[in-house]
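Example record for the data management plan.
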Amino acid sequence: MNRPPLDIERLRRALTETPELAFFTGVEVVESTGSTNADLLARAGDPEADRLVLLAEAQEQGRGRLARQWASPPRAQISLSMLVRTDGLDPELLGWLPLLTGTAVVDALRSATGVPATLKWPNDVLIEGRKIAGILAEVAAGPRPAVVLGIGVNVSLGAGELPVPHATSLTLCDVPDPDRTELVLALLTEFARRYTTWRDSGWDTTALADAYRERCATLGTPVRAELPGGGLLTGIARDIDAAGRLLIGEEAVAAGDITHLRPNE
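Corresponding structural encoding:
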């Protein structure tokens, strides 16, 4: 299988030549690392580090939600993290950042490849019910408030390389020769556009929430939520609230594993 490397020179040129991508101050590509999120969290102590992008051709100790670990075959995925300072953002609104990122990933996949990507609350990206991408947001310790946002996208994984049985990849979705560099540019462009719009609105979540709802396949469906601590909740996912929590019946869920159920389950 042909798995070309990321074109770092093209990525760097785009940051200076594309107006939307001027949001970012730098982009780096490493051949292999344990975790791009961990690498950027370690750099958060530098108060000047901001809007940095780190990509790895292979990631050996990637981390997902609920401390799940996974590894990526070389050049088969996009393993990307961004360090973003959140000066001026109310800490109570930090929960919207992963939802914003998920919305940006959906739009990037749709525009760059034409796949019918949707969201499963809070920020798993699905194609026809199978997971194509995941997002992990982590608050960074340091002299200025910051968040590291990690994005993992399955690009050319074959069926035997998938991390879990319910996953998929762009190749398995019949996207011919997916260009990872092009997709990274689409991801960064969509994130920068949405983040800048949100910041310039004074952090008003109204438009962001509407965009998220339009892309979220969880809303309006019966779901089962496995809650932290072992609790279980089933019901119709009817909306998200002002904090981005999922409303199942009359309950607001801030974290948990969501399973989409068939109507008779």
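Summary line stored alongside the record: Residues 180-200 form the longest helix (21 residues).
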